[in-house]
């Protein structure tokens, strides 16, 4: 059924269709509308039997989900940013225990300075936590990925994180095709746990493991994620069969044929990138796009194949490996058959900074003309940064960093390039 | 009170052979069909109060729930000594997730059981004092506040014993731990700090709160049984002496627990919905010195020239408990 709804509402509907049994809710922008939507559905009795638990922190949200999942219930929660970090210990734990929890991360920057707007720092900080990490390009995909996530999680007995850009997707009203309950039921069978806390068959879950077996347990986690690389495309195909549309998979390519320059990115910015690429293509520029849907496990073979003929790669990422450059680009470099020198990192959109077609066009052109540095910060106000650095050289007590920047900036205006 | 202690004065102990009791008065541990929930072969130290307390508490809970019990365990001694992979001493469904989230994991299990229509399966969460009063406090308070259907059991040995005896917010004043060393002008853990978790639990007005010690195991069993008669959040705080951390002989565990109760240092009581309903009376009050002296964690108080002023302050704390809970058995005293 076609509906014009907010992204969060679309996700709430998708999760509801997956018949969740325990939902843990803790508010944090920009995720809150999702659990609000689910709370309303539970109160209305539409999801019965389902427990909606207002917990006291994200750490508790993930911990309640761990308990519920270990006891055989389909468990879901959603978070963002600081919340994801606050639950980080439990995030790793859920993966280590092999519990198929599904969680939405409404991607948002991490403080300090506190910032509620979108980038990918939160989810990418957890890239080694053992969860499968899927990134949605638009609201339809966000909706679809949740349905695929439960299937994937429960088949592999691994947790899955569905990442969608905060505000840009969560708060955007877009047309989505909402599946029917029959379709979702046909795709997603009831949860059959591999391990369960049951008095009829008592097991100990979460025993201490020493050096004699720890490596093997970790290897199994890795092996399962590599298994997911086979299953994700298979279930995307199955999804297409049941729902009649393409969604999910490991990666999407766009106008890659004969492309000498390939732009790699995750999430909603792919829309703007594609528009920019269309403009450049119209002018005869041989440029294409590789959108990564599945960030963990990293789809090495798919990336390698997509980049096989590229002369240069521009990784546009909403994240920063402080002291290095790019997080995504580091992964891309490892899968690029050419020289790592031809993989450019463009750090963009941190803390919600708008990424415009004009700016993208500029950096893509610079890359093609061989003028793009190895690591670039899109639309960085160099003068502003220089002033702060100069002040720090001159004065010992140069004051709080963010406050100093804001003072120099004067009247705060939206930075639209 | 919940449990009538049977005093067997002829032997000079409070214990009594089960053969002398009627069937219904016998302890769960005396039953041939006891579940041995925490089975033998685990790696607790000799004289471990926590292992003893856990065995009695969980077997009693199993008995009270017709063996329909699931446990969530915080990281700590109990977790480490009971489940070194691939061995486990637990004969019940048991999960260990993290140090600070046992209460929340238990909430999740209880929610799952409700969804599955298996509300006959009851949930216990358990942890040491560090996992309860410090790092797990947020999750515990949340579980209390929501009145989730979980019995939380704290095995309190008054410090972080698993990591090698460091102060927790349950460490009593003047105690020596490895982070409250009585060196220089310091006399051990400070006065005026620490949390009284049973009272904090009562402030949540949850259905049932009780304290117990491993000196009165029938009382402990009775309190676990009583706790299982309620739905909603319940809390039992058990004093479990630790020979390693307290510095007493491994055969002295139960005596230490009894002295803690008989001196008034550790009040033993029950509360329902925030009100104290029962207290275990002290039969013959003893000075706190009797409790302190056998423990090396208080040895610095007795080393010449000694610290009578510190001992007096600890006595004041015990006296305050005696007044606050009405611990003196006036009938026996008269």
Structure in words:
The complex is a heterodimer of chains A (417) and B (334). Chain A has two domains: 2-243, Rossmann fold (3-Layer(aba) Sandwich), CATH 3.40.50.970; 251-377, Rossmann fold (3-Layer(aba) Sandwich), CATH 3.40.50.920. Chain A has 15 helices and 16 strands. Chain A has 417 residues and is of the alpha/beta class. Chain A has helices at residues 7-17, 32-43, 58-70, 81-86, 88-97, 121-125, 139-156, 181-187, 214-243, 269-282, 300-307, 328-335, 357-368, 382-394, 401-409, and strands spanning 2-6, 22-25, 51-54, 75-79, 102-107, 132-135, 160-165, 173-177, 204-205, 251-254, 261-265, 287-292, 294-296, 312-317, 343-347, 375-377. In chain A, the strands form three sheets. Chain A has a seven-stranded mixed sheet, with helices on both faces. Chain A has a six-stranded mixed sheet with strand order 10-12-11-14-15-16, with helices on both faces. Chain A has a two-stranded antiparallel ribbon with strand order 1-8. Chain B is α/β, with parallel strands linked by helices and 334 residues long. Chain B has a single domain, classed as Thiamin diphosphate (ThDP)-binding fold, Pyr/PP domains (Rossmann fold, 3-Layer(aba) Sandwich). Chain B has helices at residues 49-64, 77-82, 102-115, 129-134, 137-145, 197-203, 217-227, 243-247, 253-262, 288-292, 308-325, 330-333; strands spanning 69-73, 94-96, 122-128, 151-156, 208-213, 234-239, 269-272, 275-279. In chain B, strands 2-1-3-4-6-5-7-8 form an eight-stranded mixed sheet, with helices on both faces. In chain B, β5 (208-213), α7 (217-227) and β6 (234-239) form a beta-alpha-beta unit. Chain A binds chain B through residues 21-22, 24, 49-51, 53-57, 59-60, 63-73, 75, 89-90, 93, 97, 197-199, 201-210, 213, and chain B through 67-70, 72-73, 79-80, 83-88, 90-98, 100-101, 104-117, 121, 138-139, 141-142, 145-146.
